[in-house]
Amino acid sequence: MSESNELDPEDRKIVTLARSARARNGVPEGAAVRDETGRTYVAGTVELASLKLSALQTAVAMAVASGATSLEAAAVVTEADEVPGADLAAVRDLGGTGTPVLVAGVDGVVRSTAAAG
Fold first, then answer.
1. CA distance 69 to 91
2. In whole angstroms, how far apart are CA 110 and each of 9, 66, 79, 82, 101?
3. Are 71 and 94 in contact (CB under 8 A)?
4. What CATH number does the domain containing 62 carry?
5. Residue 99 belongs to what domain range?
6. pLDDT mean over 10-17
7. Number of domains, the chain
8. CA-CA distance, 92 to 60, in Å (whole number)?
9. Which of 47, 44, 53, 52 is nearest to 18 (CA)?
10. How confident is the model at residue 38 (pLDDT cuts 50, 70, 90)?
């Protein structure tokens, strides 16, 4: 996948929200997920002495805590080349194996789409 402007508007929105979370909070990653009703949940990396969660894990946890029962899509803005397996597992746990995970660079350009399954 190339430029984020080629994305569906709803997917572009979650990439933009993920990028904003990363920049606003000064964290390594930002993520956003969209649930089955179209609601979005946005989060950044959590790094406390007693708790470490990736941005994507945090966004999924926020969706679950808000009552979401499935996910339509997820996006993560990161400098990493790929999404760790634990992050994909979190999306898979709520979204199923077909949920796309858009992986964008810090510039917001989507570099790839990972399958949660």
1. 11
2. 13, 27, 12, 12, 10
3. yes
4. 3.40.140.10
5. 4-115
6. 97
7. 1
8. 10
9. 44
10. very high
